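pasting for the record
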Amino acid sequence: MTNRTSRIAVAAAMAAGFAVAVANPVFADVTVTVDVDKTKTITVTEIIHKDKSVTATIDVIILDADGVAEAQALANVLNQGNSVNLDGVSYIATMQTTVVGNRGITQVSQAAGNMHNQGNLVAVALTAEGDSFANAQAEVQQDNLNTSPTSLVIGSTFVANMPGSVVGNLGVTQVNQDAGNMNNQTNAVAVAAGIASTNADVLVALAESALGQTSSDHLINESNNVKDAQMVGAVTDNTGITHVNQAVGMFADQANVVSIGAAVVSF
């Protein structure tokens, strides 16, 4: 009944001149522009716990010593408040074939110039009395401060030569050579030794060496100066401790420091 009525209605409409529209899909191109504002907040919380435990075990040996040996070599060198004006001056320090074949302790200092500090120090201590304690300490402090703020050096010659020197020595040999002005040179040796004669002997040997040098606030005006330092064929075939300092110029701090603590078994 329903279908028949619909067909009749359509036919009647067409007969009356009315147009019937049939629905079809509609297509369109659309461009969309969008502005986006975004706010993002990130919070990170990190907690770190670190625990460390340190355990130290210290063993202390109390020695009722039969013999004690202590050696100290100390030097305190200061060169301050000096001034020099040089014009056409020659300083020559020469050690040709010297300090050769010596035994034991040999100390030599040579300087050509002005206001030098040179030093050689040796301290030796020995014990051989069963249980023993040996301690050696060598310290040097050198200061060369504000020495010459207005020095004028023109046409001067500084020569330090040591050809064929400090050769074939045995023991402790210390040599300082300087051609110039206001230089500090120091050699220091401290030796402490304990000698054990039986298996039951207890030996304790300590050694300490320290050095401090300061050189500051210097001003030199130089022109046409000659500085020559040579050691041709020198400081050879020595046995033991050999210290050599050679300087040519100004405001030099040179030091050799040795500290020896020895425990020797002789049986």
